[in-house]
Amino acid sequence: MSTNLQALLDDRAGAIVGREREQAALRELITEDRPLVAFVHGVAGMGKSALLRWLAAEAHGSDARVIALDGRDIEPTEQGLREALDGFPLDSGDRVLLLLDTYELLRMLDPWLRTTFVPMLPSNVRVVLAGREPPSLPWRREYGELLRVLRLESLGPADAEAMLARAGVGETDARRVNRVVRGHPLALVLASSALRDGPGMALEEIATGAIVEDVAHGYLAALDPATRRALEAASVTRRTTLSLLEAALPGEPPGDAFARLRELPFVELGRDGLVAHDAVREATAQRLKAIDPAAYRAHRAAAWRCLRRELRSAARRDLWRYTADMLYLIEDSSVRENFFPSVPVEHDVTPARPEDWPEVEALARRSGVVGGVEMLHAWWEAVPDGFAVARDPAGRVSGFRCVCELSEVSPRLLERDPIVAGWKAHLRANPIPRGQRAVFVRYGVRNEAATGFDAALAAILLDLKRVYVGMRPELRRIYTVTVGGTLTYCAMTLGYEEIAGAADCWVNDLGPGSIDGWLADLGARELLEAGEPLDLAERRLTFDGDPVELTRLEADLLAYLRAHEGRAVAREDLLREVWGHEWTGGSNAIEVVVSGLRKKLGDRAAALETVRGVGYRLRRLG
Predict the structure, then answer these.
(1) Which of 116, 151, 186 is the last residue of a domain?
(2) φ, ψ of residue 526 in degrees (nearest 5)
(3) Please, what's the largest Cα pairwise distance for the chain?
């Protein structure tokens, strides 16, 4: 009987054990009118992606079409999702399955997806979301019987042993393995691979408290040294590319390391590089950090330098990949929590409606907003599109924010509000280049009665990051206001500075690199090696223990020259990349900053060379 490669691929995708209930429920998306949305959730390694691949294969050969997207490849903004869907017609008349995997990375978009995107889809489309967390309560409340929630748990003993048998594990070994891994699908895959590639693995000695991590450690021990080095280098980054491997493993052919990683059972080739399964990647990184912290730090620093270099020439459509890469490298929880909260955020942030005013006003009176309720109402009337409200699971307003640009506010309101007067004065004294943008966060209020984890504040901060990401690379500066020191910690860790002479006014100048340059600077605080003279995050040079403070332009110029160390850099490139606008030919801005830098470099001033007719070159400082 003849066959083809697609039939073989479909047969492989259909080889799922122990998920009959979930498969029957998902089949209804192909054949029935209901449900409209299915939500598949479970902890890492439960087989969510495998189930989506099975569903795609099941739809193959029927009248249904499949659009399969991965949250790792999508910028979590409305525009980012639209770009990911570009070229995929949704209103063809046939049944269309839209599959969104790794949904936890799209949490910024969750309220918009639920309230706007999904309801506007053509009636022939069905949606499947797969992620680690279950759907929020608003999903359940608003969709009711139109939503199917499928929680994946560990396999029972018979199904686990059947899965091992498919992998070629004998009956005795299968029972022995499953006594340890207790039906966890990814752990079963790792254990079966370890038995095949390293039969000496002592499964009975593995603790059962953290199954995947422990099995992964045992699996690593069975790998050959070259493959283990490649996996350790890949474990500290979100994705793995040839350039990242070359940076992390100097002297080793990156193509060989890339090929070794592709052979591993938990590594997939994605749209922008190799991606190891989260659970194994995290377990590998933890092991490396514990047994060889110097190597762990060196891999991260090498990755930071590589990404920083590539980011400077990245196209707009690729920026989110680098944003996510930088966020993965940064361990500071105050940064990562702002983009990817570790605690499920059950509060929604959606555009404010006129009927929300009474609740907004009451919340403002309890919280004591800067400028008073009368000023708040003036903003509410003048910039209605700038307001969004956070709602608790019962639908009550638990917080609100107002975000806008200067051009969106009437001159009359600007004159009345002393907060904005402080921002405008700072903007006049420190103008931003043409084509770059400044955003005003006039209000960011949550329920003052909240104790412990503040879900409303977390939701508002997450929504603000969605706004900021959507405005880059033009977003240059963020102005905000604080009540009672709310932003003091942010000022210390995220780069906000209090505006002198303007009470409660703060500013964060992201630099010409916008969000991505800002993140790279934050990463420098953690990742640069000891003895590195330039501290980008603190804007400081340190030689022989003596710190020298730099202005932002001095730090940005020096950082750019450092990235091209030893090479002549054209004046036009410096103005475009550091100042943020095209060279016009008549400014001495570079000379002024270079002169200041040379004075601060002291005995090392000769390292900053003038290249006649071209620009400047930096020799090694350290």
Answers:
(1) 151
(2) -90, -35
(3) 83
Residue with the two structure tokens 């979930």: 22
Give me the amino acid identity at 503.
Answer: A
| Among 338, 438, 350, residue whose Cα is nearest residue 389 | 350
CB-CB neighbours of 256 under 10 Å: 14
CATH number at residue 83: 3.40.50.300
Kindly state the percentage of the chain with pLDDT values over 70. Answer: 87
Tokens at residue 548, please? 């020298």
How far is C-alpha 520 from the chain's CA centre? 13
Which run of H or of E encompasses 569?
Answer: strand 569-570
Q: CA-CA distances (angstroms) from residue 139 to 47, 114, 123, 186?
A: 23, 7, 18, 29
Q: Tell whether 127 and 187 lie within a shared domain.
A: no
* Three-class DSSP labels, 487-534: CHHHHHHCCCEECCCCCCEEEEECCCCHHHHHHHHHHHHHHCCCCCCE
Domain membership of residue 517 (yes or no) is no
Q: Output the pLDDT for position 448.
A: 62
Tell me: do 132 and 176 sit in the same domain: no
In the chain the first and final C-alpha atoms are separated, in Å, by 70
Least confident residue range of 9-23, 327-341, 354-368: 9-23
Give the type of residue at 557. L
307, part of any domain: yes
What are the tens digits of pLDDT across the range 467-518?
A: 999 898 899 999 998 754 445 555 556 778 888 777 778 898 888 888 888 8
Last residue in a domain, options 104, 124, 151: 151
The model carries a pTM of: 0.77
8's tokens: 């073989």
What's the average model confidence in pLDDT over 242-262? Answer: 94
Q: Could you give the CA distance from residue 622 to residue 112 in angstroms, rounded to a whole number?
A: 49
Evaluate the CA torsion angle 393, 399, 403, 408 in order and state its sign.
positive
Range of the structural domain that residue 91 is part of: 5-151
Total domains in the chain come to: 5
User: In this structure, is the dihedral angle defined by the CA atoms of residues 179, 183, 184 and 189, taken in order, positive or negative?
Assistant: positive
pLDDT score for 353? 94
Task: Determine how β-strand 505-509 pairs with β-strand 475-481.
Answer: antiparallel
Q: What values do phi and psi take at 201, rounded to 5? A: -65, 125
Give the span between the Cα atoms of 384 and 558, in whole angstroms: 42
Average pLDDT for 190-209: 57
Q: Is the dihedral of CA 298, 302, 308, 311 positive or negative?
A: negative
Strands (E), 52-136: 65-70, 96-101, 125-131
What does the angle CA 324 – CA 329 – CA 105 come to, to the nearest 5 degrees?
35
DSSP state of 263: T
- Residues 603, 556: one domain? yes
As a whole number of angstroms, the distance between CA 503 and CA 418 comes to: 9
Asked whether the beta carbons of 471 and 439 are under 8 A apart, the reply is yes
Residue 449 pLDDT level (bands cut at 50, 70, 90):
low
Distance CA 307, CA 272 (A): 13
Indicate if 356 and 453 belong to the same structural domain.
yes
Asked whether the predicted pLDDT for residue 254 surpasses 80, the reply is: yes
Q: Which two tokens stand for residue 310?
A: 């590539």
Which of 502-511, 535-544, 583-592: highest mean pLDDT? Answer: 502-511
Is residue 92 within 8 A of residue 64, CB to CB? The reply is no
Residue 402: predicted pLDDT: 94
Cα–Cα dist 262/276, whole Å: 9
Does 483 map to a domain? yes
597 and 501 in a single domain? The answer is no
